[in-house]
Amino acid sequence: MMVESASETIRTASSNQNGVSSLTSQSEGGGREGGSNGDANGEISPVDLLHLQQQQALQAARQFLLQQATGLSSPSSNEVKQSPVQVPVSMAMMTPQMITPQQMQQILSPPQLQALLQQQQALMLQQLQEYYKKQQEQLHLQLLSQQQQVGKHAKEQQQLGSKQLAFQQQLIQMQQLQQQHILNLQRQGLVGIQPGQVPIQGLQQAMCPTDLQQLWKDVASVQNADEPIKHEGLDLSTNSSNTTSYTASKVSPQIPHHPLSNGQNSMHTPKRDRARLFEWISSFTKGESSDEHLTPYSKGTPLQSSHSSHEEHTASHPLYGHGECKWPGCEALCEDMGQFIKHLNSEHALDDRSTAQCRVQMQVVQQLEIQLAKESERLQAMMTHLHMRPSEPKPFNQPLNLASSASLLKRDSEPFPEGLPHPPTSAAAPITPLRQGPSVISSSSLHGVGPIRRRNSDKYCTPIASELAQNCEFYKNADVRPPFTYASLIRHAILESPERQLTLNEIYNWFTRMFAYFRRNTATWKNAVRHNLSLHKCFVRVENVKGAVWTVDEVEYQKRRPPKMTGSPTLVKNMISGLGFGSLNASYQAALAESSLSLLNSPTLLNNSTGASLNMLHVGHDDVSSTVEQVNSNGSCSPGLSPQQYGHQIHVKEEPAELEEDSRPMSLIASVTQNLSMPGDERDMEEELPTEELE
DNA sequence: CCCGTCTTAAACAGAC
DNA sequence: CGTCTGTTTAAGACGG
Q1: Which residue windows does the record flag with biased composition (Low complexity) (predicted)?
Q2: In chain C, which nucleotides are within 7 Å of a protein Cβ?
Q3: Confidence (pTM)
Q4: Angle between helices A154-188 and A352-385 (to 10 degrees)
Q5: Protein chain A, residues 582-601, with a C-beta closer than 7 Å to any atom of nucleic acid strand B
Q6: Could you tell me which of A444, A466, A438 has the C-alpha nearest to residue A677?
Q7: % pLDDT > 90, chain A
Q8: Rounded to the nearest 5 degrees, what angle is found at the Cα of A412, between the Cα atoms of A410 and A676?
Q9: CB atoms within 10 A of CB A582
Q10: What's the pLDDT tens digit per position in A418-432?
Q11: What secondary structure letter does DSSP report for A421?
């Protein structure tokens, strides 16, 4: 059917503005980077959680120290120490009493504490990374699933579009936070590199009191069993270098254990202890999520970690890297794997201490998991709120790159697998390979491309403005047919222009500039455009000095569509604003969407930025965004004239123009998607389109 | 099945 | 004469 408009050599030199790529979401996320900590975010970020934990941990540590100083201790009870080993972590956490203060004292010498803290830090770091990873993955999966769904539920998609942006942003945020946090840790020396430097605060932040207690318990017990911990670190002197505060707290028993007081932490202490923990923990974690956890360390090393046993380590080992043992606190140098294994077996053999360390790590992990759970919950809530289905795999994008999720994460907004919309029918176009999906690929994008699309597209059409605003980049680069009717697109183009009027050629340019899809088969769609201009009364041709321009008669435009949906306006609103566009008749929907736009157009509306009024379409931000676009155009140009006015001036086709819709409440206008929206008017902006305009 | 909308195709006319 | 612009008609797809 489709005539291959081969004839149309035009091709507008598909000016792929690939460079554009960056989505708004990205930009936002990126902007934040500069800002130091994720704290900036009002919400509780993982980082915050970490800090909290650390603080708590510090407190606990301090308490222990105090106890020691006081001499409350009563040595003995080795059993206790062992018991922890067997006790499930949860139990252990629950029953701090198990460990007597005395034990703690014995075990926890300042240096030890420091060591522990160090370990904790390292662990935390790892955990953090894992945590972040998980979160990211989760987000990604969800996004992917959503995208997939899109295929099926196009309508929902549209809305999702905006939501997805938010999610992507969150993703980005997370990534940033992760990076930041890691950096911070490194700076602080938390990473374990420079024990002395670690500010106690860091530790404090890392753990919660309970955790710490437990940890301490465990550790204490272990140490007892293993070796009478030497107080190498004991003397403050050793540590003193970095930790001023630390000394204080540590040294002076009298000092109240205020959480705030600084404790110090670490020092070189038990390097060896950690390794075991690691493995042990890893064995646990693996069970749950295999390699993900390992990432930080084992990234390069695939799943080997899966061999819980310490011995297996073949080529790479999670606990071995850069020629040294990565066991927490142990930085023993190992020439090769063999040596490392030996070291591991000898130094980090399965004993109480190692076990205890593992326990500690487990707790850390648990803690993190709890955090993760919370965060996940939050995410779910968010998604729910946004009407996204958390996890509904859809056949659609499956090909999507789950695998590449990692990369996706990086891009934040790139998740566009985009395997989809290749227009089967019409040939492949030169279009942009990029496909950085609009942050949100709205259903529209997914729709079929060819003629087929039409109904679907319409149906799911969201308010064009918002849709376009959100997925502007996407449409620009992806060879996907926009889910809007020619009429709506034309109207949008015209309204978007400063003058609210465009010549045919300008309209063409707008199409080509805004949609990759319209960079091919020009004969076809141009013909369609002309056809629509002529056919629809809403498009009014105005003779101009330099020729003729096309304007939009909003009244007329509004007239046409609505007829169908006799239903209550509210219904309409809901449909549009809501996710359930599907039900609406395509045309009707389109009309609605557009109507919203039109409303926006009217100058009067501009003022009402209050989004309160729901009148016409109580469109969600979608509309709003669109509104914004409109607003812009309005503002810039002829504020005074409403489209209708133009219409009145020259009603070539008809003479409607009765009422002005301006009355419409355009609360929508408020939103701000301007950024997304394209350049107000093509003429001015034309940047990419070399072609016609210039002529 | 009818009707309306939308899209595509195509014929045609007028202007440049 | 060719192209662009604009109008019109027809047909098919869709959905209510």
Answers
A1: 237-247
A2: 4-10, 13-16
A3: 0.33
A4: 140
A5: 586-587, 590-591
A6: A466
A7: 3
A8: 145
A9: 16
A10: 333 333 333 333 333
A11: -
